[in-house]
């Protein structure tokens, strides 16, 4: 059993991650702005804290007596706040929390980044060198959210250079997270149901039709924490489903929304997704267990209900600026 502190544990991904890790036998403590009454957190220790307060964060993390930290807390929606606010908040939390974990003596530290660091949807156009996209694809952020996520990865690299192998670090880029209740019709983070995202490809196009079940992210996190002492320090992993959130092959859909990608997208035949999870599979032995085909087949039908939707409208409604990942 591992004692794990999770920042942002009351959020959409955080609730499923905490619940999954607790079900696997770990001892969890959730750190967030307020204590939550979410059923997934029932019986889990919760601490209300302003994580931007670096001194308080160090003291609180030390008090948790955690063996490992998973950092999720951040402004999670691009363009949901002014660019300077997103940058200050997410960058400040990275330094406060990740640096605080090192000062608190936590020896395994994992942080959530985002696929948006790759820069797809840039207003000036975007054509990758190849598909599927993976960890070797160059990062080219074009907005404060994506840049702040890349800074999280760079903060990990910085701290690894400071501590060497005394602290083991990793970052992960979860694709468009779908919580368990959203398969049954609850609204996703953008205010649509999963079925609506499938019926209208324009809704999933900003994320290049990527997705991952939140429960699979929890299993990934468990697998990663166990492997940290054995794998190279400071690795980054994409966490994605084995298929695309689309009914048509991406070889046809991607060029429709990303001009100039006809040639590179031609390899995305059948159900092949735009993002590869091969590194997580090969290095960690992780495989996602959930697919939209199985989940929607088993899900009850009924009206959609809003559950913890961060935002249903976007003040900058062009295709790229609606991208919401984790």
Provide keyphrases for this structure.
disordered C terminus, 326 residues, 12% strand, alpha/beta, two-stranded parallel sheet, Rossmann fold, 11 helices, seven-stranded parallel sheet
Topology:
Blueprint: E1 3-7, H1 12-23, E2 27-32, E3 45-48, H2 54-64, E4 68-71, H3 83-103, E5 108-112, H4 144-163, E6 168-174, E7 177-178, H5 180-183, H6 194-199, H7 201-204, E8 212-213, H8 214-227, E9 235-239, H9 250-257, H10 278-284, H11 292-298
Parallel strand pairs: 1-2, 1-4, 2-3, 4-5, 5-6, 6-9, 7-8
Give the CATH level 1 class of one domain. Alpha Beta
- Rg over CA atoms, rounded to whole Å, is 19 Å
Low-pLDDT runs? 301-326
The end-to-end distance, rounded to whole angstroms, is: 27 Å
Number of helices: 11
- Element pattern in H and E: EHEEHEHEHEEHHHEHEHHH
* CATH topology (fold) name of one domain: Rossmann fold
Strand numbers in spatial order across the main sheet: 3-2-1-4-5-6-9
Overall pLDDT: 92
CATH structural architecture of one domain: 3-Layer(aba) Sandwich
Shape: globular
Largest sheet: 7 strands, parallel
Strand content: 5-15%
Q: Give a count of the beta strands, DSSP E runs of length 2 or more.
A: 9
Overall helicity: 25-40%
Structural class: alpha/beta
CATH superfamily heading of one domain: NAD(P)-binding Rossmann-like Domain
Organism: Microbacterium kyungheense
Protein name: Nucleoside-diphosphate-sugar epimerase
InterPro entries: Epimerase_deHydtase, Lipid_A_modif_metabolic_enz, NAD(P)-bd_dom_sf
